[in-house]
Amino acid sequence: MARRQVQEINAGSMADIAFLLLIFFLVTTTMESDKGILRILPPMEEKKTDVEINQQNLLKVNINYKNDIRVSGISRTIDITELRSIAKRFILGENVRVDDPAIGGADMVPLEQAKVPYTWRYLPADFTITADHIIQLKNDRGTSYEKYLQVQNELTAAYREIRDDFCLKYIPDADTYDEVMDLNVRDEIEKEIYPRKISESDPVNNAQQ
Amino acid sequence: MSKFRKGEKKEVGAISTASLPDIVFMLLFFFMVTTVMREVDVQVENTLPEATEITKLEDKALVSYIYIGRRRGASENELPKIQLNDAFASVEQIKSYVTGKVALIPEVDKKKMTVSLKIDKSTKMGIVSEVKIKLREAKAFKISYAAFETSEIE
Fold first, then answer.
1. How far apart are CA B80 and CA B98, in angstroms?
2. What b/e string do you get for B110-125 counting C-beta neighbours within 10 Å, with b at 16 or more?
3. What ipTM was reported for this prediction?
4. Bridging pattern class, strands A58-63 and A134-139
5. B24 in contact with A, Cβ within 8 Å
6. Does A144 sit within 8 Å of B121, measured CB to CB?
Protein backbone atom coordinates (compact mmCIF):
# COMPACT_ATOMS: atom_id res chain seq x y z
CA MET A 1 0.00 0.00 0.00
CA ALA A 2 1.40 3.27 -1.04
CA ARG A 3 1.36 5.78 1.71
CA ARG A 4 1.15 9.31 0.67
CA GLN A 5 3.24 11.68 2.61
CA VAL A 6 1.16 14.60 3.79
CA GLN A 7 2.91 17.67 2.62
CA GLU A 8 3.56 20.44 5.06
CA ILE A 9 1.62 23.57 4.39
CA ASN A 10 3.81 26.46 3.54
CA ALA A 11 3.36 29.03 6.27
CA GLY A 12 5.35 31.69 4.55
CA SER A 13 2.30 33.64 3.46
CA MET A 14 0.87 33.66 6.95
CA ALA A 15 2.71 36.87 7.73
CA ASP A 16 1.26 38.52 4.64
CA ILE A 17 -2.27 37.57 5.56
CA ALA A 18 -1.76 38.81 9.09
CA PHE A 19 -0.32 42.05 7.77
CA LEU A 20 -3.32 42.55 5.59
CA LEU A 21 -5.69 42.09 8.49
CA LEU A 22 -3.53 44.29 10.66
CA ILE A 23 -3.66 47.11 8.17
CA PHE A 24 -7.42 46.75 7.89
CA PHE A 25 -7.88 47.13 11.63
CA LEU A 26 -5.36 49.94 11.80
CA VAL A 27 -7.35 51.88 9.26
CA THR A 28 -10.81 51.24 10.68
CA THR A 29 -9.80 51.82 14.27
CA THR A 30 -10.94 55.04 15.82
CA MET A 31 -9.32 55.65 19.13
CA GLU A 32 -12.32 57.73 19.86
CA SER A 33 -12.48 58.82 23.41
CA ASP A 34 -15.46 60.69 24.65
CA LYS A 35 -14.24 63.69 26.46
CA GLY A 36 -15.91 66.93 27.13
CA ILE A 37 -17.03 69.54 29.60
CA LEU A 38 -19.82 68.09 31.71
CA ARG A 39 -22.81 70.22 32.56
CA ILE A 40 -26.16 69.63 34.18
CA LEU A 41 -29.00 71.50 32.54
CA PRO A 42 -31.67 73.03 34.75
CA PRO A 43 -35.14 71.50 34.54
CA MET A 44 -37.83 73.34 32.62
CA GLU A 45 -39.82 75.57 34.88
CA GLU A 46 -43.56 75.47 34.64
CA LYS A 47 -43.97 79.06 35.59
CA LYS A 48 -41.44 81.80 35.90
CA THR A 49 -40.40 82.35 39.45
CA ASP A 50 -38.57 85.54 40.11
CA VAL A 51 -35.97 85.02 42.72
CA GLU A 52 -34.55 88.12 44.25
CA ILE A 53 -30.81 88.06 43.98
CA ASN A 54 -28.80 90.73 45.65
CA GLN A 55 -26.65 92.72 43.28
CA GLN A 56 -23.43 91.86 45.05
CA ASN A 57 -24.04 88.12 44.75
CA LEU A 58 -24.51 88.18 41.01
CA LEU A 59 -21.75 88.24 38.45
CA LYS A 60 -23.04 88.65 34.94
CA VAL A 61 -20.85 87.35 32.16
CA ASN A 62 -22.05 88.33 28.75
CA ILE A 63 -20.70 87.23 25.39
CA ASN A 64 -22.14 89.24 22.53
CA TYR A 65 -22.42 88.38 18.85
CA LYS A 66 -18.98 89.90 18.21
CA ASN A 67 -17.62 87.43 20.77
CA ASP A 68 -16.66 90.22 23.18
CA ILE A 69 -16.81 89.19 26.80
CA ARG A 70 -18.17 91.63 29.30
CA VAL A 71 -18.50 91.27 33.03
CA SER A 72 -20.92 93.33 35.09
CA GLY A 73 -19.20 96.13 36.96
CA ILE A 74 -16.21 96.26 34.62
CA SER A 75 -16.70 98.70 31.81
CA ARG A 76 -14.11 97.42 29.35
CA THR A 77 -14.24 94.15 27.43
CA ILE A 78 -12.53 91.28 29.14
CA ASP A 79 -9.93 89.06 27.55
CA ILE A 80 -10.57 85.34 27.87
CA THR A 81 -7.33 84.94 29.83
CA GLU A 82 -8.53 87.33 32.53
CA LEU A 83 -11.84 85.64 33.09
CA ARG A 84 -10.56 82.81 35.24
CA SER A 85 -9.00 85.04 37.87
CA ILE A 86 -12.00 87.38 37.90
CA ALA A 87 -14.35 84.44 38.47
CA LYS A 88 -12.07 82.98 41.11
CA ARG A 89 -11.87 86.21 43.06
CA PHE A 90 -15.63 86.68 42.79
CA ILE A 91 -16.37 83.18 44.10
CA LEU A 92 -14.03 83.77 47.01
CA GLY A 93 -15.93 86.93 47.95
CA GLU A 94 -13.59 89.62 46.66
CA ASN A 95 -15.00 92.67 45.01
CA VAL A 96 -14.17 92.40 41.34
CA ARG A 97 -16.33 95.23 40.07
CA VAL A 98 -13.63 97.82 39.73
CA ASP A 99 -15.84 100.31 37.91
CA ASP A 100 -18.75 99.91 40.28
CA PRO A 101 -17.13 99.63 43.72
CA ALA A 102 -20.31 100.54 45.56
CA ILE A 103 -21.77 97.05 45.05
CA GLY A 104 -19.12 95.18 47.00
CA GLY A 105 -18.15 91.54 47.05
CA ALA A 106 -20.49 88.57 47.43
CA ASP A 107 -21.88 87.87 50.90
CA MET A 108 -19.73 85.67 53.08
CA VAL A 109 -21.81 83.14 54.98
CA PRO A 110 -20.49 80.91 57.75
CA LEU A 111 -20.43 77.24 56.83
CA GLU A 112 -22.85 75.07 58.77
CA GLN A 113 -21.44 72.04 60.47
CA ALA A 114 -24.54 69.98 59.75
CA LYS A 115 -24.01 70.33 56.03
CA VAL A 116 -20.41 69.17 56.03
CA PRO A 117 -20.09 66.57 58.80
CA TYR A 118 -17.07 64.87 57.25
CA THR A 119 -15.01 67.88 56.22
CA TRP A 120 -15.81 69.88 59.33
CA ARG A 121 -12.96 68.48 61.42
CA TYR A 122 -10.37 69.91 59.03
CA LEU A 123 -11.83 73.39 58.95
CA PRO A 124 -11.50 76.38 61.25
CA ALA A 125 -14.76 77.15 63.02
CA ASP A 126 -15.13 80.54 61.39
CA PHE A 127 -14.83 79.27 57.82
CA THR A 128 -17.00 81.29 55.49
CA ILE A 129 -18.17 80.73 51.93
CA THR A 130 -20.09 82.75 49.38
CA ALA A 131 -23.07 80.43 49.51
CA ASP A 132 -25.41 82.66 47.53
CA HIS A 133 -23.19 83.73 44.68
CA ILE A 134 -24.33 83.12 41.15
CA ILE A 135 -22.47 83.49 37.91
CA GLN A 136 -24.94 84.29 35.21
CA LEU A 137 -23.77 83.41 31.75
CA LYS A 138 -25.50 85.13 28.90
CA ASN A 139 -24.87 84.75 25.24
CA ASP A 140 -26.28 85.94 22.00
CA ARG A 141 -27.67 83.77 19.23
CA GLY A 142 -24.77 84.94 17.11
CA THR A 143 -22.06 84.10 19.63
CA SER A 144 -19.66 81.49 18.32
CA TYR A 145 -19.77 78.13 20.01
CA GLU A 146 -16.00 78.08 20.29
CA LYS A 147 -15.97 81.27 22.35
CA TYR A 148 -18.85 80.06 24.48
CA LEU A 149 -17.03 76.84 25.28
CA GLN A 150 -13.86 78.75 26.12
CA VAL A 151 -15.83 80.78 28.64
CA GLN A 152 -17.42 77.64 30.07
CA ASN A 153 -13.95 76.15 30.24
CA GLU A 154 -12.52 79.12 32.14
CA LEU A 155 -15.40 79.14 34.61
CA THR A 156 -14.95 75.41 35.20
CA ALA A 157 -11.24 75.99 35.64
CA ALA A 158 -11.93 78.71 38.21
CA TYR A 159 -13.98 76.33 40.35
CA ARG A 160 -11.44 73.57 39.88
CA GLU A 161 -8.58 75.81 41.01
CA ILE A 162 -10.54 77.00 44.03
CA ARG A 163 -11.26 73.41 45.06
CA ASP A 164 -7.61 72.51 44.54
CA ASP A 165 -6.44 75.44 46.67
CA PHE A 166 -8.93 74.50 49.34
CA CYS A 167 -7.71 70.91 49.44
CA LEU A 168 -4.07 71.97 49.52
CA LYS A 169 -4.77 74.22 52.48
CA TYR A 170 -7.15 72.18 54.60
CA ILE A 171 -7.29 68.54 53.60
CA PRO A 172 -4.34 66.49 54.81
CA ASP A 173 -2.63 64.16 52.32
CA ALA A 174 -4.24 65.83 49.33
CA ASP A 175 -2.68 68.58 47.26
CA THR A 176 -5.49 68.71 44.74
CA TYR A 177 -9.17 67.88 44.69
CA ASP A 178 -8.51 64.78 42.61
CA GLU A 179 -6.24 63.39 45.31
CA VAL A 180 -8.89 63.48 48.01
CA MET A 181 -9.58 59.86 48.84
CA ASP A 182 -12.57 60.22 51.15
CA LEU A 183 -15.65 60.15 48.92
CA ASN A 184 -17.76 61.91 51.54
CA VAL A 185 -15.32 64.78 51.70
CA ARG A 186 -15.21 65.01 47.92
CA ASP A 187 -18.96 65.10 47.80
CA GLU A 188 -19.15 67.85 50.39
CA ILE A 189 -16.59 70.00 48.64
CA GLU A 190 -18.38 69.56 45.33
CA LYS A 191 -21.91 70.08 46.60
CA GLU A 192 -21.73 72.19 49.72
CA ILE A 193 -18.51 74.15 49.98
CA TYR A 194 -17.70 75.10 46.40
CA PRO A 195 -20.58 74.00 44.19
CA ARG A 196 -20.62 75.24 40.64
CA LYS A 197 -23.20 77.96 40.37
CA ILE A 198 -23.40 78.90 36.77
CA SER A 199 -26.81 79.95 35.60
CA GLU A 200 -27.67 80.40 31.98
CA SER A 201 -30.44 82.41 30.54
CA ASP A 202 -31.91 81.83 27.15
CA PRO A 203 -30.02 83.80 24.56
CA VAL A 204 -31.18 87.10 23.26
CA ASN A 205 -31.40 87.76 19.60
CA ASN A 206 -29.40 90.82 18.75
CA ALA A 207 -29.91 91.11 15.02
CA GLN A 208 -26.73 89.94 13.28
CA GLN A 209 -26.74 86.20 13.13
CA MET B 1 50.98 35.56 15.42
CA SER B 2 48.21 37.47 17.05
CA LYS B 3 45.39 35.97 18.91
CA PHE B 4 42.84 37.95 16.98
CA ARG B 5 43.07 37.25 13.35
CA LYS B 6 42.35 40.22 11.26
CA GLY B 7 41.35 40.37 7.67
CA GLU B 8 39.38 37.20 7.80
CA LYS B 9 35.84 37.89 6.63
CA LYS B 10 33.11 36.78 8.96
CA GLU B 11 29.78 35.74 7.50
CA VAL B 12 26.85 37.57 9.02
CA GLY B 13 24.03 35.11 9.47
CA ALA B 14 20.65 36.05 8.01
CA ILE B 15 18.18 37.23 10.61
CA SER B 16 15.49 34.70 11.09
CA THR B 17 12.09 36.00 10.14
CA ALA B 18 10.25 33.06 11.59
CA SER B 19 8.94 35.10 14.52
CA LEU B 20 7.62 37.86 12.27
CA PRO B 21 4.14 36.34 11.94
CA ASP B 22 3.94 36.06 15.71
CA ILE B 23 4.77 39.71 16.19
CA VAL B 24 2.30 40.75 13.53
CA PHE B 25 -0.39 38.56 15.04
CA MET B 26 0.19 40.13 18.39
CA LEU B 27 -0.31 43.59 16.93
CA LEU B 28 -3.31 42.34 15.03
CA PHE B 29 -4.98 41.04 18.16
CA PHE B 30 -4.27 44.27 19.95
CA PHE B 31 -6.01 46.29 17.28
CA MET B 32 -8.85 43.81 16.96
CA VAL B 33 -9.56 44.09 20.64
CA THR B 34 -9.25 47.86 20.95
CA THR B 35 -11.06 48.68 17.76
CA VAL B 36 -14.48 50.26 18.01
CA MET B 37 -16.29 50.45 14.75
CA ARG B 38 -17.92 53.79 14.20
CA GLU B 39 -21.64 53.30 14.47
CA VAL B 40 -22.61 56.42 12.65
CA ASP B 41 -21.33 58.15 9.61
CA VAL B 42 -20.77 61.74 10.53
CA GLN B 43 -22.13 63.78 7.69
CA VAL B 44 -21.45 67.20 9.12
CA GLU B 45 -18.27 69.17 9.56
CA ASN B 46 -17.15 68.26 13.02
CA THR B 47 -14.04 69.98 14.27
CA LEU B 48 -14.40 70.07 18.01
CA PRO B 49 -13.22 73.07 20.02
CA GLU B 50 -10.40 72.77 22.50
CA ALA B 51 -10.70 72.80 26.26
CA THR B 52 -8.60 72.04 29.32
CA GLU B 53 -11.21 71.14 31.93
CA ILE B 54 -12.21 67.83 30.48
CA THR B 55 -14.01 64.88 31.95
CA LYS B 56 -13.98 61.49 30.34
CA LEU B 57 -17.30 59.76 29.84
CA GLU B 58 -16.92 56.34 31.35
CA ASP B 59 -19.64 54.15 29.95
CA LYS B 60 -20.23 54.38 26.24
CA ALA B 61 -23.49 52.50 26.50
CA LEU B 62 -24.93 55.42 28.43
CA VAL B 63 -23.92 58.08 25.96
CA SER B 64 -25.99 59.33 23.04
CA TYR B 65 -24.63 61.70 20.49
CA ILE B 66 -25.92 64.78 18.78
CA TYR B 67 -23.81 66.15 15.98
CA ILE B 68 -24.16 69.73 14.88
CA GLY B 69 -22.32 71.42 12.06
CA ARG B 70 -22.46 72.48 8.48
CA ARG B 71 -23.06 69.80 5.87
CA ARG B 72 -19.80 68.27 4.69
CA GLY B 73 -18.49 70.28 1.80
CA ALA B 74 -21.18 72.94 2.07
CA SER B 75 -20.44 76.59 1.57
CA GLU B 76 -19.63 78.88 4.49
CA ASN B 77 -23.01 80.54 4.38
CA GLU B 78 -25.07 77.43 4.87
CA LEU B 79 -26.72 77.07 8.22
CA PRO B 80 -25.56 74.28 10.50
CA LYS B 81 -27.57 71.08 10.63
CA ILE B 82 -28.33 68.59 13.36
CA GLN B 83 -27.47 64.96 12.81
CA LEU B 84 -29.08 62.22 14.88
CA ASN B 85 -28.02 58.65 14.17
CA ASP B 86 -27.39 58.58 10.43
CA ALA B 87 -29.72 61.28 9.23
CA PHE B 88 -30.19 65.00 9.41
CA ALA B 89 -32.95 66.01 11.75
CA SER B 90 -34.86 69.03 12.91
CA VAL B 91 -34.79 70.40 16.43
CA GLU B 92 -38.25 68.93 17.04
CA GLN B 93 -36.97 65.39 16.53
CA ILE B 94 -34.51 65.61 19.40
CA LYS B 95 -37.10 64.83 22.03
CA SER B 96 -38.17 61.56 20.44
CA TYR B 97 -34.54 60.67 19.73
CA VAL B 98 -33.60 61.11 23.38
CA THR B 99 -36.67 59.26 24.62
CA GLY B 100 -35.79 56.40 22.29
CA LYS B 101 -32.24 56.27 23.60
CA VAL B 102 -33.38 56.35 27.22
CA ALA B 103 -35.70 53.42 26.57
CA LEU B 104 -32.70 51.29 25.58
CA ILE B 105 -30.96 51.82 28.89
CA PRO B 106 -31.67 49.55 31.85
CA GLU B 107 -33.82 51.08 34.56
CA VAL B 108 -31.04 51.53 37.13
CA ASP B 109 -28.86 53.55 34.80
CA LYS B 110 -31.53 55.73 33.23
CA LYS B 111 -30.50 58.77 35.22
CA LYS B 112 -26.89 58.40 34.22
CA MET B 113 -27.55 58.90 30.56
CA THR B 114 -25.37 61.60 29.09
CA VAL B 115 -25.91 63.40 25.84
CA SER B 116 -22.64 64.23 24.19
CA LEU B 117 -22.95 67.33 22.05
CA LYS B 118 -20.45 67.11 19.24
CA ILE B 119 -20.63 70.59 17.88
CA ASP B 120 -18.41 72.07 15.22
CA LYS B 121 -16.51 75.02 16.55
CA SER B 122 -17.66 77.37 13.83
CA THR B 123 -21.30 76.93 14.86
CA LYS B 124 -23.21 79.87 16.26
CA MET B 125 -24.94 79.58 19.60
CA GLY B 126 -28.48 80.01 18.24
CA ILE B 127 -28.96 76.40 17.21
CA VAL B 128 -27.07 75.14 20.26
CA SER B 129 -29.46 76.94 22.59
CA GLU B 130 -32.47 75.54 20.77
CA VAL B 131 -31.06 72.04 21.16
CA LYS B 132 -30.42 72.65 24.84
CA ILE B 133 -34.00 73.75 25.40
CA LYS B 134 -35.25 70.61 23.66
CA LEU B 135 -32.99 68.47 25.83
CA ARG B 136 -34.39 70.11 28.93
CA GLU B 137 -37.90 69.36 27.69
CA ALA B 138 -36.88 65.75 27.11
CA LYS B 139 -35.48 65.65 30.65
CA ALA B 140 -31.99 64.77 29.46
CA PHE B 141 -30.15 67.03 31.84
CA LYS B 142 -26.70 65.54 31.79
CA ILE B 143 -24.81 66.86 28.84
CA SER B 144 -21.23 66.99 27.77
CA TYR B 145 -19.82 69.54 25.39
CA ALA B 146 -17.41 67.35 23.46
CA ALA B 147 -13.98 68.91 23.11
CA PHE B 148 -10.38 68.06 22.40
CA GLU B 149 -8.11 68.06 25.36
CA THR B 150 -5.26 70.54 25.32
CA SER B 151 -2.88 71.59 28.01
CA GLU B 152 -3.17 75.29 27.28
CA ILE B 153 -5.56 77.42 25.31
CA GLU B 154 -3.80 80.05 23.31
1. 20
2. eeebbbbbbbbbebbb
3. 0.77
4. parallel
5. yes
6. yes
Residues 6+ apart with CB under 8 A from A83: A61, A69, A71, A151, A154, A155, A158
Q: Looking at the complex, does the CB of residue B123 fall below 8 Å from at least one CB of chain A?
A: yes
Chosen from B145, B150, B151, B154 to mutate, greatest number of chain A CBs within 10 A: B145
Domain count, chain A: 1
- Report the Cα B131 to chain-centroid distance in Å: 20
**Count of CB pairs separated by less than 8 Å, A with B:** 150
- The reply to whether A18 falls in a domain is no
**Structural domain for A130, as ranges:** 55-158
Q: Does residue A167 form part of some domain?
A: no
Q: Residue A150: inside a domain, yes or no?
A: yes
Tell me the pLDDT band of A68, cut-offs 50, 70 and 90.
very high
- Amino acid at residue number B30: F
The residue of chain A nearest to residue B69, with distances taken between CA atoms, is A145
Q: A80 and B145 in contact by Cβ < 8 A? A: no
Domains of chain B in start order, with CATH, are: 50-149 (3.30.420.270)
Q: Which residue has the higher pLDDT, A156 or B5?
A: A156
> Does the residue A107 lie in any domain?
yes
pLDDT tens digits for range B72-91: 888 888 889 999 988 899 99
B69 interaction partners in chain A (CB closer than 8 Å): none
Question: What sections of chain A are H helices per DSSP?
Answer: 14-28, 80-91, 145-170, 183-188
| Cβ–Cβ gap A145/B120 under 8 Å | yes
For residue A22, give the nearest of B28, B60, B145 by CB distance. Answer: B28
